[in-house]
């Protein structure tokens, strides 16, 4: 009678366990040599706060400067980019920070533009990111002589969280445009014979107090400044008496001549008025003086979208105003004011 060996039936199970243990140990040894999966954080800039509600960042913004602060206000990262990279609609800015919550502050359009000056050359705190428009001064006060290039601002608190399997985590930073183009056209209401407007006949200016901006894009102080040195272009149009009879009748003449003046100004805000002033140079008389923001907001409802006053002023970055003059080169208020093609009747209390 043969002798039975105890636990013989367990041998296959023990062997399987030994193989599994060896395999697990080998796997751990292999993965110990690999770095853990890394998450890359990036920021996408978006400029769709415009009247077309479409992202125009790649088409308009020339340079980007981004500062990243922790929630205590300490600078943890700063980066810049400009040129062709921004033309790529897929471009995003890599941000070398650890996972966490941060405050992003961006000024876009600063590179190569001496008209824009930060409070500090090397900002280390949000308060040092205050920005001013450079101005000159004479006996009449501070003024801005040169045209302003596009300036954009963005600020947002974001949280960067590690992705479980690594990869890219993206945060979006919306931008607001801080510059506006203003075009003023003067036109004779009725034909004045051979009389034509020339560039030297009128001076244009906008009196404001919007030259200093805080890091959150609010306006600082109330230091007055004047936007001068407008680009002026004489205009002339002839109507054919037969083909353009209707147009000629509306204009009150078969020959229309006028003067267009344009320049860029700083951000228009709903809580601060700016005065548009037009002077006749022959005697220095002020023929037009009106609260610009008040009148621009009068046509806000014609855009078929419900917008708060400030949103409207931010989204519309070009304003065209047409005024009619009589034969004495005075403002003929009876013809109204055309603002972005919408007619507005001036109020009686408008200052002259």
In short:
Helices cover 13% and strands 39% of the residues. With 352 residues, the protein is mainly beta.
Number of domain units = 2
Mean pLDDT over the residues: 88
The CATH architecture term of the largest domain is: Sandwich
Strand residue percentage: 35-45%
Give me the number of helical elements: 5
| Helix percent band | 10-25%
Radius of gyration of CA atoms, rounded to a whole number: 32 Å
The side-by-side strand order for the widest beta sheet comes to 8-9-16-14-19-20
Looking at the structure, what is the overall shape?
Answer: elongated
Helix-strand category: mainly beta
CATH topology of the largest domain: Immunoglobulin-like
| Uncertain spans | 17-31, 243-249
What is the top-level CATH class of the largest domain? Answer: Mainly Beta
N-end to C-end Cα span: 130 Å
H/E element string? HEHEEEEEEEEEEEEEEEEHEEEHHEEE
Biggest beta-sheet profile: 6 strands, mixed
Number of strands: 23
């Amino acid at each position: 009678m043969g002798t039975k060996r105890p636990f013989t039936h367990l041998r296959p199970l023990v062997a399987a366990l030994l193989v599994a243990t060896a395999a697990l140990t080998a796997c751990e040894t292999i993965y110990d040599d690999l770095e853990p999966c890394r998450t890359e954080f990036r920021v996408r800039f978006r400029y769709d706060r415009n009247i077309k509600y479409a992202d125009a960042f790649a088409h308009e913004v020339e340079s980007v400067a981004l500062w990243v602060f922790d929630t205590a206000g300490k600078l943890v990262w700063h980066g810049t980019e400009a040129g062709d990279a921004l033309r790529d609609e897929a471009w995003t800015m890599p941000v070398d920070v650890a996972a966490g919550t941060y405050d992003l502050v961006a000024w876009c359009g600063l590179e190569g533009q001496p008209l824009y000056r930060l409070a500090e050359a090397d900002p280390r705190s949000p308060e040092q990111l205050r920005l001013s428009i450079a101005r000159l001064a004479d006996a009449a006060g501070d003024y801005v002589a040169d045209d302003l290039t596009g300036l954009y601002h963005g600020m947002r608190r974001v949280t960067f969280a590690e992705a479980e399997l690594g990869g890219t985590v993206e945060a979006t930073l919306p931008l607001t445009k801080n510059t506006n183009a203003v075009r003023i056209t003067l036109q004779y209401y009725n034909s004045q014979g051979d009389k034509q407007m020339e560039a030297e006949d009128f001076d244009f200016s906008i009196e404001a107090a919007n030259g200093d901006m805080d890091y959150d894009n609010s306006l600082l102080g109330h230091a007055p400044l004047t936007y001068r040195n407008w680009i002026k272009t004489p205009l002339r149009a002839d109507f054919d008496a037969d083909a353009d009879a209707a147009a000629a009748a509306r204009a009150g003449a078969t020959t229309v001549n006028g003067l267009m003046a344009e320049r860029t100004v700083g951000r228009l805000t709903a809580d601060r008025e700016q005065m548009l002033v037009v002077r006749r140079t022959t005697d220095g008389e002020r023929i037009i003086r009106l609260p610009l923001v008040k009148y621009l907001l009068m046509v806000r409802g014609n855009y078929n979208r419900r917008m708060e006053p400030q949103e409207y002023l931010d989204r519309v970055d070009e304003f065209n105003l047409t005024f009619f003059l009589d034969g004495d080169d005075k403002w003929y208020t009876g013809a109204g004011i055309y603002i972005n093609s919408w007619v507005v009747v001036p109020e009686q209390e408008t200052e002259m």
